[in-house]
What we know:
By secondary structure, the protein is mainly beta. It folds into three domains: 2-60, SH3 type barrels; 65-124, CATH 2.40.50.140; 128-185, CATH 2.40.50.140. 0% of the residues lie in helices and 53% in strands. The protein has no helices and 16 strands. It has strands at 2-3, 12-15, 18-28, 36-43, 49-55, 59-60, 65-75, 79-84, 90-94, 110-116, 119-124, 128-136, 149-154, 159-163, 171-175, 181-185. The strands form four sheets. A five-stranded antiparallel beta sheet has the order 9-8-7-10-11, with no helix packed on it. A five-stranded antiparallel beta sheet has the order 14-13-12-15-16, with no helix packed on it. The N and C termini lie far apart (51 Å). 14% of the residues are buried.
Amino acid sequence: MIRAGGIEKGMCLLIKGEPHAVAEREFVNPGKGSAFVRLKLKNLRTGLVLRETYKSNDNVETADVFDRDVQFLYSDGENFHCMDMESYEQFDVPMAGLEDKANYMKEGDTYTLVMWETTPIDIKIPLKMVFVVTEAAEGVKGDTVQGASKIVKVETGLEVKVPIFIKEGEKILVNTESGDYVERVNT
């Protein structure tokens, strides 16, 4: 338990039985009445945003959320199969709620798994990642008016819209939040 007046941005709280991260915190001390705290909270399991207000002396329960480094082994369509980097124990992480991460996870890479008690609730992936283009159609000569682009497929199966000069086998940098092409990577 923590007093609402001591809540800081980034803390994890247990609200209505669900873990929430504090996205914004505003302390209000009106001329009349007692001080209070306005919070903007993000549900760590569903991503929904919740706004709550507490008196500064109210108690709020903290959520036991921690990070665990794991190596991604493979996906079978229902689960991510991972290995703990400390104990080398292998375990499954259900893909439900994490499907958007599947196209960015490369076999053998290390990621941070966010755990709540014993339940995995999120996988942190880098904001930008390098991928190898595995399928790319040839750009048509003369199709260069107004920054022409084409769709390519990368090693994880993700389809990315890129400029026509990108060829199969080249490495590209992709923004994992938007899925957009950032730049070609020279090796």
